Amino acid sequence: MPVQALTGAELAERLSAGVPASVERWEEEVVWVEPSKVEDVARFLRDDSSLDFQFLNAISAIDFIEYFDVVYHLTSFRLQHTAVIKTRLHGRESLSVPSVYHVWRGADFQEREVWDLMGVDFQGHPNMKRIMLWEGFEGHPLRKDFL
Amino acid sequence: MPIHTEPMTINVGPQHPSTHGVFRLRVTFDGEEILEVEPVFGYLHRGTEKLAEERTYVQIVTLTDRLDYVSSMINNQGYCLAVEKLLGVEPPLRAKWLRTMVAELQRIASHLMGIGFFLQDLGTLGTPLMYGFRTREKILDLFEMLCGARITLTYMRPGGVFSDTPPDFWPALENFMQELPTEIGEIEQLVMENEIVLVRTKGVSPLSPEMAINCSVSGPVLRASGIAWDWRKMEPYDAYEWVDFDVPVGANGDNYDRFWVRMQEIHQSARIIHQCMEHIEPGPVRLDLPLVFRPEPGAEAYGRVEASKGELAFYMLSDGGVSPYRCKIRSPSLINLTVTEHLLVGWKLADMIVTLGSLDINMGEVDR
Fold first, then answer.
1. Interchain CB distance below 8 Å, B315 and A132
2. For residue A59, is it within any domain?
């Protein structure tokens, strides 16, 4: 049986019950969460037995000039469903979001990559340094203003 | 009098032949035992995601060839699926069968290299590697008939494939599929029950299913740890929903299981190719899409395939322009490396090289 994508509305309802004041809004297949609540949301998504998102597929960041989106793609192998969580960081300087390293170890290199190329800092990551480029490199090349 | 000893930090790579590309491991040893490991990469970082932002959707196909360069077909497929999802179109039926078929040929080629280099790292001095290359060469000849290229193929396009097969392709494929079982059989006979292979790989560097999931490991490495998760089954794309195949899983997640799973997957790929050859029917192979197109502003798509190394995904976002606003590549090789430290600490130098080989990474994909 193929995997099912959880709807944003369903996920938002569960998240609001599990982690108070975490949900900002939702779309068809996306839930937007409060940046400061990312780690709590991640832990709830992993540990709640009816959600069971044990597998972190990918962490992506997108530069929209006035703000940055950080996107988490998740999968549950046991319940065979997927989810997309997004969070929005306003501004361009000293951006940071809580790290999910302690929830999913798979975030290790992915968060370092986002920091290296996009300049979003992940608080609580034990080894937050550049991964593709060398220490001392100036700027974050995947940003839209890096030419 | 006791001899004074102290831990020693050694750089393995970035040019070491067993690192499978330009990859560096900073390893601290106590004698032969590994105390600490830090993987260092980025030597092959070409900024593929940035480059994609200033090319048209069709031009980007050429960039995907250069990710996992021993598995270009599957990279093309993952990218084309993501773009098709972004546009909301589906390729013609014949294109779906063709893509499935060539992707499986590519998987065989990639796994043969993975297995060959793994055994090379074990010290088999080239024989199984050359056996693997012999078969891979024939697959590359088939690809050359399809698109003129052998490695950087760019055979697929959003909306189908570049062109239909030439008439002499089918007899050549038929011929290859007849030779394949004998050639794979020779490798299996040589190594599957070889005592040195068994002693050196069984029980070495096991990866538990919990750890594998928590570290986002995918592909044969995940399945070797006993988890039957294959995106070809769980989210069938192209023609995979119409073909019959098994998902081999390992029991212990050790170096032997990772090697064994790849060997079994070659047989399953051959099964899929046979079914494709049987079911494929004449018809168009490509949608009539313009060369330069603009997806809806704000459209986004997460297109993924089960690549030879694991879950390869393209997360595409459009702003209505001729190039993607963002094209994030989820690289299975990079993310599978998350477990390197966990797998290596406590084992010996000689096992380190073998374990790295068993992960089957490709630096083009790790660094992008």
1. no
2. yes
Residue B18 gets which letter from DSSP?
A: G
Residues of chain A with Cβ-Cβ distance to B235 below 8 Å are 2-3
Confirm whether B340 is domain-assigned: yes
Task: Quote the ipTM score.
Answer: 0.89
Counting the structural domains of chain A, the total is 1
Query: Domain with A26 in it: what CATH number?
Result: 3.30.460.80
Among the listed residues B130, B137, B118, the one whose alpha carbon sits nearest the alpha carbon of residue B70:
B137
Q: What is the pLDDT of residue A24?
A: 82
Q: Is residue B17 part of a domain?
A: no
Tens digits of per-residue pLDDT, B266-319? 999 999 999 999 999 899 999 988 889 889 898 899 999 999 999 999 999 999
Token pair of B263, please?
A: 């060997």
Q: Which of B342, B288, B299 is nearest to B91 (CA)?
A: B288
The reply to whether residue A105 touches residue B214, judged by beta carbons under 8 angstroms, is yes
Cβ atoms within 10 A of the Cβ of B190, count? 15
First to last CA, chain A: 45
> Counting beta carbons within 10 angstroms of the beta carbon of residue B2, is it exposed (0 to 12), middle (13 to 18) or buried (19 or more)?
exposed
Q: Do B49 and A117 touch (CB under 8 A)?
A: yes
For the full predicted model, state whether its pTM sits above 0.80. yes
Contact indicator for B355, B205 with CB cutoff of 8 Å: yes
Strand order in the sheet with B326-330: B300-306, B311-317, B326-330
